[in-house]
Fold each of these.
Amino acid sequence: MHMKHSDEAHGPPVVPVKFVLEDPEGLTSTEQVEWDLMGGEGENLLELAVENGINIEHACGGVCACSTCHVYVEEGMDEVSESDEDEEDRVEEAPGLRIDSRLSCQCRIEGKGPITVRVPAWNRNAVKEVPH
Ligand code: FES
């Protein structure tokens, strides 16, 4: 399923967000590990990544109904929206759960950054196990 782009307008791209990819080849078909992007206030991390060619899985289309868009917010947790109960319940299903685990589709940019997001290597593997 393709992500539905949010209809909500978001601010100008002035917030620095660095994505660190454990599997750059699988996510971008390149070998570039670190991606320095600029996000806008109100934009979610999944949307920002996908718009810039980082194909984080999002099996449910970004509606908090899977856990394939799981990432780690390693820096700037205060710069993104807090997780709600739905996200917390869902993210617990993700492999490799950590204290900084978030669902990137539920994580909106709220502050001025900087934000650093690590995309785990098994982001793609987890999806391959889902029957089609
Ligand atoms: S894409 Fe399914 S929960 Fe984020």
Note: The chain has one domain: 13-125.
Amino acid sequence: MKKLLTGNEAVAEGIIESGTEVVCGYPGTPSTEVIQTLLPKAKELGIHIEWSVNEKVASEIATAASWAGKRAIVTMKMSGLNVASDSLCSIIYSGCRGGLVIYVVDDPGVSAGMVEQDSRYYAKLGVAPMLDISSQQESLDFVKLAFEVSEKIKGPVFLRSTASISHVASDVKIGKRVELKREAHFERDISKYTKPKASWCMNQHQDSLTRLNEASKIVDSRVNQVHLEGKYGVIVSGAAWENFQEAVNRYNLKLSWLKIGIVNPLPDEKIKEFLKDIDKLLVLEELEPFIEAEVMRISFLSGKKIDILGKFDGTLSMMGSYSFKEIKKSLEALLKVKLESEQNSEIIKRAEELEVKRPTSFCIGCPHRGTYYAINKAIKKLKYKKKDIIVTGDIGCTILGMNKPFETCWTEVAMGASIGLAQGFKWAGIEKPVLATIGDSTFFHAGIPPLINAVYQNVSLTIIILDNGWTAMTGFQENPGTIPLKDTNPMRIDIVEVCKGCGAKDISVIDPYHLKESIDVIAEAIEHPGVSVVVSRRECALQSRRRKVNLPKLKVNPDKCTGCRVCLSSLACPAMIFHPKDKKGLMEITSSCNGCGLCKDVCPEEAIEVIKDAV
Ligand code: SF4
Ligand code: SF4
């Protein structure tokens, strides 16, 4: 049977079909939908699925489950692999018992912010096999294969995808679920599971190297395909495969190709054999020249002179995902021919006309709008210029405070980094106040150690934790601070109590829908010597509305409105529309208003009123 599935949904299906019993991860675009798809089925499947507090913790949970004999998988985006790598590099040395798969999705072309990191290098660094997914069908098939390989070699296997596969749907042939139901059992073996002795460590390293070779033998003929047809050749891997195939079929190209499905270790012998028949080669892989450099090494050692096109000669870019157009262009360079364009320029022109460019803004009623407005006003109240006060930003919805009209945040580095960076600015000698802003999920993920450091080092800074109770940016996943939900999340970890436990003494809680009080409290916190924490607490407006916590909507009184647009320019709420009319113009609040009341507070004419009984 076939189903229309995105790459991530196909991975979820592969997890079910493989008999996996423990699934962990941290939400991160472009990998989120694997757990998102599985979570509602957890009870029916009778397996453990969780959003863990961060990727390192998720990896450790999956590992111990595998050490106890179960099949387990951990999912993450590329930046998450940086967090998980500290544990994973050690785990890989120890190997595993039940199949252990690490699913990571890279984002060439930056569909969701953050770096264009090429995670293939982690497989090399960690000494673990990595399968590279090139289609939605492989997203399912390679999960099963990865578990099979992992159990045969007794070591973890990386499974890497990219956003253009994980987020795009295609027909996928699905199979049947294997129910393993293994007994959990773990035997003490300190030479395998600990690393205090150099000899144990080096033996474990040797085991990892041996496992790499075994993995290569198992999968070679199953994931690496060769087609020989002449002296022009293409080595292709990952997401570039689909567009390459389309170009070959569309233009009826006569060339040889080698499709690589395992990128660590690379199939050296197969590449060597392939190169024997090739005079001119194109290496098609997104991001870094990971395969291309190795192909150059293999060709050099084999003594065969081949003209190699790729990143090193500038034929292809190290940035972005490869469109059909770019792949076609690189094939033209390889074959020295002009391939006909079938694009309809009229359609492209029309598409460009229809494109609407909108700044990324907070959602209607978002409490972060109130927090950033209050931060800016507090800075002004203390008679500082906004351009003089450094406000570090963090990952998630909260970083939208860098955009107009607030333009509050100055930096974005990594989960939790706002609090560490703020400390560095102070120790560098910035005398004026420094503020750090961070969301609740990000705080739980990686904000606690830098808070403890700030308290311990007694640095003077203000940390604003924007606690909307959800991991909202990636699709409203729960986190330890989410309000208690009957089935999945019975208790809430209170951020205020966590901050107290970290030693913070000056902690205030504000409601960002109450602007005046919020401005006063933030101003006081900025003036406090040492670490001050302000928890700005109000549930994400969209989740709140979904849970039927509705607030009265608002309207503009046309008799009072002067058309000054202060409300719009200070808050940029998408529920507001300005109608230029006569000289004055008129502001309108549409029915999508979420009733946060912020615009009512900022209107100098008191022209915005609550619609009584309207929710
Ligand atoms: S701030 Fe008040 S007076 Fe000015 S446009 Fe908005 S509703 Fe009208
Ligand atoms: S009350 Fe005002 S600021 Fe809040 S959602 Fe409605 S229109 Fe937007």
Note: The pocket of iron/sulfur cluster (ligand 2) is lined by residues 364-365, 554, 571, 573, 575-576, 589, 593-599 (CB under 6 Å).
